[in-house]
Please model this.
Amino acid sequence: MKKRHAIIMIVVYVAAFYSWLFLIGNNDSVEAFGTRMFSLAGGLVSFIWIRKAAQGMVDQKGRRFWFLLTLGVLSYSMSHLFLLNYQVLFQVEINLNIAHILGVLAYVIFLTALMYLSYHLQRNKLRSRFYFNVLIFMTFAISVSAHFLIKPTFDLIHESFIVIVLSRAYPIIDLAIIFVMLHIYYLYSRLKQKWLLIMMVGFGIQVIGDTSYIYMLSEGIDHIDSLLAPFWSVALLLIGLAGRYAKEEGSTLQWRIEHFIGEEDSVIPYAAVLVLVVLFVSYSNVSSNPLAIGLGLTLLFITVRQLVVIRQTNSLMKKYRYLAHHDPLTSLKNRSRLQTDLKEYIQKARHLNASVGIFLLDLDGFKQINDTLGHHVGDLLLNKAAERLKQSIGPDDRIYRIGGDEFMMILPNRTEEGCLNIAEHITEQFSVPLSIEDYDIIITPSIGMSLFPEHGRTSDVLLKCADISMYDAKKSPDKHYQLYNEVLNNMLVRRLKIESGLRHAIANDELSLLYQPKVILATRDVVGVEALLRWEHPEYGVISPAEFIPAAEESGQINMIGGWALEEACKQLKIWHDRGFSNVLMSVNVSVKQFQHNRFIPSLKQILHRTGVNPAYLELEITESIMQNTAQTTRVLKDLHAMGIKAAIDDFGTGYSSLHVLKSLPIDTIKIDKAFIDDPSDVKQQALVRTIIDIGLNLDLNVVVEGIEAEAQLDPLLNMPSVLGQGYLFGKPMSKEEIIPLFDKL
Model:
């Protein structure tokens, strides 16, 4: 049955119910029989709808919630069945205790189901707060019900004590249901789910029916059961209809992962306290009792003050939560939020047996635009790019800025074809120039894509897949996006094996150091060596540092491996010094992440202490990227100088060098990258090398030219005094035994 047909059925049911009551007139027994039959029919229909909703829920918590509602409707229907059975068998209209017990039990189950839902909608740390809210409101509900509903009618019904108690339980439970429903709507309203609104209307009609029953009973109105019976039946049918909507909306709901439930506290308990104070003053003789007046005013002022504090706190918490989970420049969600959301999307996809697309995207050439047009234009460009990306995705998709010009997207329920279509659409969107101030800028994205569960079942693996795919897309100027595939999978398998193997490389004695000589260009005399780390992998053989060092940095193992290399180099330097080669200088490469670690200096001091090496003959080589954080870099370099250790900038001229920063840093050496001497016939290149050397020498720095492999590269450098060189022309990386003969001239 479609939802539209279900709504029509409810309308027809209500019309038929009241028509029956109108046509029967004063025939009490027939009227009662029909009332029971209609109520029983409505309950059974609602039971079927809610049971199907429970069976259709993929999420375990949702299934339990609807199962509890199923039990409640069943208990309600059984109570009417008992009343109907008694009337048919004995031809009398008597309220059986068992029927009332089942009726109240139905209400208790409804309340339990709603409290279960409310409980699981909250963060763990807010649940204790929820229990206090329930306690406060239940106290309010019992007090108001006892005063206005139970007390006035207590003497009007002459039934057994059990029936009287059970009858008076309805209004108390009704108020509690209303409180919990409001609490749920407060937590869940941003999802705008129709089933929730329909359920609220259903329980609202139920409370109206119960309240009207108590009021009409106190006023002595006849036939109140017949007049109000349709209210209770319609309430059950609407709850059942909510189940039908929930069953169809369930899949959509699973994807709407929004962490909107924060530190806000419901104002309902405080409103209940205010109402109770007002009622106490209005209906009690407190005008002559100063203590009662003082108590009432004090409670009033405390409650109002607490409401003001809650509002201020909520405002601050919303601001802090926003800043914690959003990028301040683009207002997109940030890396922190990505990690949380991606895990939840994957978990939901497992329950739904669905897929999730992961996009990693960066903007090609953004650094050049940022450097040439300025950071202001770069920031505007990122904002425009973010807007373009928002226009390219659906309402259930999520986009994040994870740093610099990198963005990530989570696209639930996407196939490979769907991911490729979206990537193509994004590429087309960026083919239109971005108008920024006086510039029309065309910038192309590189997109790497992976899919859950085809390419991985955890967030870390999926992100690695997307990362590998993106860098593969960047290799070709004509290919702007790449979906993870078998070839890339082999690359990832290799990468994961490398990361795993690194954990055991030291223990398995797979790492080693080779040493490449460093010479004075004019005389070719050896003045020192550079220690170069090598790894003999048991499966892949010799792996280049260009491959395993980035893997060590990403997996957090660089400090362990870098520390090992540094200590081994110091041990070897001490051995050479003890053998009489006391002028040998040892250069050791240090990763930026290793250099910036807060334990770098303390661990270095421990290495010097254990090896006993003279720190004056130790030089640490760091890449230019350390200049991105000049404050921390300066602090660490000063610590190195205080220890007597030299520092060198490796691959100078290819990264982040800034001359005004360079002159202020405590640097001893600059090493000119081999890219500047690759073409010895290039006159401009030679002039550039001479300029860099002159700058270094004028700053009183040692200058080393790297990558000299031929005499033609050496010749233009020979007339430059005090310049050092390194490369295959003077010696390849050698073992500690092979390099000994080169020290004879020292």
Q: What stands out?
A: DSSP finds 24 helices and 16 strands in the chain. Confidence is low (pLDDT under 50) at residues 251-264. Residues 290-325 form the longest helix (36 residues).
